[in-house]
Write a structure and sequence with these properties.
84 residues, mainly beta, OB fold (Dihydrolipoamide Acetyltransferase, E2P), four-stranded antiparallel beta sheet, elongated
Length: 84
């Protein structure tokens, strides 16, 4: 069976306000995984367009992030979901 592992990177410059999930949790596509407070003071959710199990979380609350910061990794469950 094929295994696809996705790296989750921060799309924002800011600070991790909250980690919304834990390693080994199953997450659904577009589910919020992290909450980032941007340098502009906005709260932004970080999510991915696939579902699967989190293999790791690489950041903690209060940590500064940029678009090259790896937040975690996710093993894709390869299930096609969604609707029109």
């Amino acid at each position: 069976m094929n295994e696809i592992v996705h790296t989750i990177s921060s799309p924002y410059v800011g600070t991790i306000e909250e980690v919304l999930t834990q390693p080994l949790d199953h997450v659904y596509e577009w589910e919020a995984l992290f909450l980032v407070k941007t340098d502009e003071g906005k709260l932004e959710h970080v999510h991915v367009g696939v579902s699967g199990h989190l293999l790791s979380i690489e950041v903690s609350e209060g940590e500064e992030v940029t678009p090259v910061t790896v937040l975690g990794t996710l093993r894709d469950d390869l299930l096609i979901t969604g609707s029109d």
